[in-house]
Amino acid sequence: MTQAKELLTQMNDRSREVFRRVVEGYLESGEPVGSRTLTRTLSEKVSAATIRNVMQDLEFLGLLDSPHVSAGRIPTQMGLRMFVDGLLEVRDLDHDDRRKLDETMGSNSDNVGGLLDRVGSALSGVTQGASLVLTPKHEAPLKHMEFVSLAADRALVVLVFADGHVENRVFTPPPGQTPSSMREAANFVNALLEGRTLSELRTVMRTEIQRRRQEIDVLAAELIDSGIAVWEGEGNTSERLIVRGRANLLGEDVPEEDLDRIRTLFDDLERKRDIADFLELTDEGEGVRIFIGSENKLFSLSGSSLVVSPYMNADRKIIGAVGVIGPTRLNYGRIVPIVDYTAQLVGKLITDRS
């Protein structure tokens, strides 16, 4: 149980109602809500002083904040999360909103890309917010691939398919990767594309890795048999061929070019393993979550929230998501059913087309 949910279970009816009224008032007006305003709306008739005491307690718990001295209160990020998770009353989808969504997506076009473009436009128009559409992963021959470093632990892969479809996926790169190493990986992969799908590319990379390992084994076999070298961590991605006594090696009549060749093959093997990791991470993509404010670092600076719902194919497998990005004081009670209904529509339309 989260801290917010624990606090909710510990609150009495009065505290819970005061908290709910403050949040609802803030979401509706965008302004702090004062104790005098609440005395007119609470089901229980209590004084403004009593309400102020309750609001001070809620502020102490980290659920409310006062932007100015002697002003009303607004919900904190934790307070918004608790409200959304435990107190939000989701309304039925408005008839007019439903009609607009149905009309926008009522086209008979078989183009999934066009459908999802219309979904984004519909959500933006109905909610007056920025829409977010995560499309199903495209499994088609590739034309080009680029890796872009966003931060030390975040990277973007841009996939351009032969049919003109473009897809962006965010992933966490393997440790130690740099923008330069990502460019090298992209250059190598683009040289292999030749109309292959992402799955086929991964198979090619596994074959390349196996071939390189076999070359190293052949060259190193004599050194290992004679006891001059030994495998360390054999079979692991961090395996190394340890050469014992470099000075003694010269007397064993082992050509220096053999050692240079092994070193070169090892470097190449490690590069190919890194590229295979990139392709694996690209294929896995990123999961879907619901974020509020700085729970997502992408939105922390703008103070925005994302309400998102996944959509599924006929096998009940999540293949994408639709959502709305807006200020943290979104009208969640209205937005949530809109996003949910849109996700159901998209899932049904894509299933019908397949």
From TrEMBL:
Domain (Heat-inducible transcription repressor HrcA C-terminal): give its ranges.
115-336
Key words, A-Z: Repressor, Stress response, Transcription, Transcription regulation
Asked whether the keyword Repressor is assigned, the reply is yes
Note the InterPro entries from the entry: GAF-like_dom_sf (IPR029016), HrcA (IPR002571), HrcA_C (IPR021153), WH-like_DNA-bd_sf (IPR036388), WH_DNA-bd_sf (IPR036390), WHTH_transcript_rep_HrcA_IDD (IPR023120)
Record-level GO BP terms: negative regulation of DNA-templated transcription
Recorded hits in Gene3D superfamilies, A to Z, give: 3.30.450.40, Heat-inducible transcription repressor hrca homolog, domain 3, Winged helix-like DNA-binding domain superfamily/Winged helix DNA-binding domain
What would you give as a GO molecular function for this chain, any one? DNA binding
> Member of which family?
Belongs to the HrcA family.
Q: What is the protein's known function?
A: Negative regulator of class I heat shock genes (grpE-dnaK-dnaJ and groELS operons). Prevents heat-shock induction of these operons.
Which NCBIfam families does the record match to this protein? hrcA
Which PANTHER family does this UniProt record tie to the protein?
A: HEAT-INDUCIBLE TRANSCRIPTION REPRESSOR HRCA
Q: Which HAMAP family match?
A: HrcA (MF_00081)
Q: What is this protein called?
A: Heat-inducible transcription repressor HrcA
Which gene codes for it?
A: hrcA
